[in-house]
Amino acid sequence: MSTTLKQLPEGYKIRPMEPTDYSVLKILEVLTTVGSIGEEQFSLQVEEWKLNDRIYNPLVVTNNNDDVVACGMLFVEFKLIHELGKVGHIEDIAVRSDQQGLQLGKHLILALTEIARSKGCYKVILDCDEKNVGFYQKCGYSVAGVEMSIRFDK
Ligand code: ACO
Q1: Among 106, 112, 126, 149, which is best to mutate for testing ligand 1, by the most ligand atoms less than 8 A from CB?
Q2: Residue 3 carries which DSSP code?
């Protein structure tokens, strides 16, 4: 990858999300509404992802106290086009507010992107706010296409 990357701060690590990483839910609140999810419900969801790990690839960043300080997901879509091609989708990237600006988001995106490459995806796509375009460009991504949606939750 052509983007430059400083080292993670000392003692910080990236690893797959585990069913015990309940604090992820607090971190996701910097991104959007999480709502009420119990510890057991959280664990079951992560276990379900682990059973389907060809598709779901959730990662976390931990700090030097082993606290989870950032999280993100890559899921792999299995397609018919491009001779049964695979597309990676990056979703739900969140860095704890007091840990932003330490390159954690960038490390996370590059790690998720590398998983997509190693699993044979021909591209990775994501949706983001205009205000985060510069961040994703620093991670090697380019603006491509237009996001559209229809919502059933309002
Ligand atoms: N606009 C422009 N550049 C940015 C921005 C931004 N909004 N945010 C960071 N950067 C730059 C940094 O200055 C840095 O530049 P450098 O490499 O030249 O030093 C580079 O991008 C990497 O920044 P990080 O320190 O890795 O950014 P951070 O760890 O703070 O993570 C993130 C960025 C994920 C946007 C974080 O601020 C966050 O969690 N925000 C709230 C939730 C959110 O908006 N998540 C993204 C949703 S989109 C999705 O999930 C697909």
Answers
A1: 106
A2: S
Strand partners, 94: 71
95 lines ligand 1 (CB under 6 A): yes
Ligand 1, atom nearest to 70 Cα? 39
Q: Do the strands 123-125 and 86-95 form a parallel or antiparallel pair, or are they unpaired?
A: parallel
C-alpha distances (whole Å) from 97 to each of 36, 67, 94, 110, 123 are 21, 14, 9, 20, 29
pLDDT digits (tens, 9 = 90+) for 72-92: 999 999 999 999 999 999 999
Please state the pTM of the whole predicted model. 0.96
Burial class (CB in 10 A: 0-12, 13-18, 19+), 100: middle
Q: Whose CA is nearest to atom 23 of ligand 1?
A: 103
Going by C-alpha positions, the residue among 134, 125, 129, 86 that lies closest to residue 106 is 134
Place of tokens 């990056």: 90
The SS3 of residue 40 is: helix
Ligand 1 centroid to Cα of residue 114, in Å, is 18
